[in-house]
Amino acid sequence: MLSMNARGGTLRIFLIGLAVAAFLAVSALPAHANDPVASAAASTAAASLAAVDPPIPTAEAAAQAAANKQAIARAAQSGQCAAQTLNREGNFSTLRITSYKYKFVKIKKGKNKGKYKRKIVKYRPAVKVSCARQCVAVAKKKGKYVNVYTVKKVKRKVRKRGKIVTVKKRARVYKFTDCANLPTAEALGTPVKIDLLPGSYALLDFGSFTRQATVSGNVRGYIPGKFKPNTDIKVFLTKSNVTVGTTPVFIDDDCNNQVSTSLRTGQPTRVLLDTTKESSSTLLASGTATAIVSVRIQLPLELRNDDSGCNDSYIRTGYSEFTHTFFFRGKVGPAGLVKLQVSSPQDTLSVVACLTPGTPTQPCNGFQVPVPILISTKLTVKIDLSGKN
Question: Which residues sit opposite 377 in a β-bridge?
Fold first, then answer.
């Protein structure tokens, strides 16, 4: 038997070991485990760090995300959409085929009133194709755009002996393409050319004197679709090749009492269409012609080199650019559209004059001054609607 001293020593060793284990367990716990405020602050800090610095995705996760994105794109392209055809006006219409289906209708008279009877009805369902290639392709033949198709035997539903049967018959099978590949409304429409004939001019009113500037060139546009005589026609203007002739502005006799020009418009003074706005002309069946034309005017100047440079070449400047909208109106006369006179009422033109030497075909890179004047125009034009220009 163990003595009392031995049993007491063993008990003390056991108690000491238990105390050491408890101390180690408590030390392993976080310092704020029992502090709710510290615990909440630690959680908030961890969330903030996670939001600021999210974990970097692995290569496998990035590859999976890319694959999912491609799958979604393929699914969107492989969807079924109603096929579209493009007409000459640049508008889309749904491509349809003729088919048959059964329909139950209610009998309204007779001994079978209130019952239903099956009948065959004709309908025109839309042709379903891939959304990625939804539009019928077109090709240009003999100057006109036509739909591209082949004639093949395809399955169609027809009515035969009071029943709907599926047969093979020859029909058009269209070729489809992305709608973005189709020509524009301008390419599909009828080209129009408007020539400015001799005698066309703009009247410039400077207040104390006026000047007459000759105008020449042509404007091009198109009619949406095909030209139809004896109807109201709207022409969309797309390109301008109009120039203003050299026009004396300030005239004096400072060169040994010889009358000469001290300032004149330079060459080329171009009148271009303002593509940020729509310009169009309307020819009414009644014979009235109107037009709203927004332009950009590029004006270089030619300056005499003071009074001592009377026999020297003019100093040329770069061009200044300013915009204006003209409102034209005219009436078709005996000559028709071959010689049509139109005019615009007097309006304020905010001219900007470049006074710095430069190249006339380059923008002004120096001093410019505003010179507001009054302008009106009288034009004689020839309008070609044949589509052959």
Answer: 202, 344
> Is residue 343 a contact partner of residue 376, using CB atoms and an 8 Å limit?
yes
Which tokens sit at 94?
């749904």
Contact predicate 175/136, CB 8 Å: yes
Asked if residue 83 lies in contact with residue 127, where contact means CB atoms within 8 angstroms, the answer is yes
Residue-range domain boundaries for the chain = 77-184, 189-384
The average pLDDT across 58-80 equals 67
Alpha-helical runs (H) found in the chain: 4-28, 36-52, 59-77, 185-188
Task: State residue 306 phi and psi, 5-degree precision.
Answer: 60, -170
Prior bond of 191 cis (ω within 30°): no
**Who contacts 357 (Cβ-Cβ below 8 Å, separation ≥6)?**
315, 316, 317, 366
Going by C-beta distance under 8 Å and a sequence separation of 6 or more, which residues neighbour residue 239?
219, 220, 221, 273
Q: Tokens 């392209």 — which residue?
A: 77
Q: What is the pLDDT of residue 16?
A: 53
| Pick from 347, 348, 352: nearest CA to 363 | 352
Which residues face 196 on adjacent strands? Answer: 217, 381
| Global confidence as pTM | 0.64
DSSP letters, 87-145, are: -TTS-EEE-B--EEEEEEEE--SSTTTT-EEEEEEEE-PBPEEEGGG-EE-EEEETTEE
Q: What is the pLDDT of residue 1?
A: 40
* Structure tokens given for 111: 């001994």
Number of other residues whose CB lies within 10 A of the CB of residue 252: 13
Are the C-beta atoms of residues 349 and 372 closer than 8 Å to each other?
A: yes
Strand partners, 336: 333
Spell out a b/e string for 169-180, using b for 16 or more CB atoms within 10 Å of the CB, else e: eeeeebebbeee
Q: Is the link from the previous residue into 268 a cis peptide, with omega within 30 of 0?
A: yes
Planar angle of CA 121, 122, 125, nearest 5 degrees:
125
- 3-state secondary structure (DSSP) of residue 318: coil
Residue 48 banded pLDDT, cuts 50, 70, 90: very low
Contacts of 165 (CB under 8 A, 6+ apart): 157, 158
Closest to 169 in 3D by CA, of 158, 157, 154: 154
- Model confidence pLDDT, tens digit, residues 276-285: 999 999 999 9
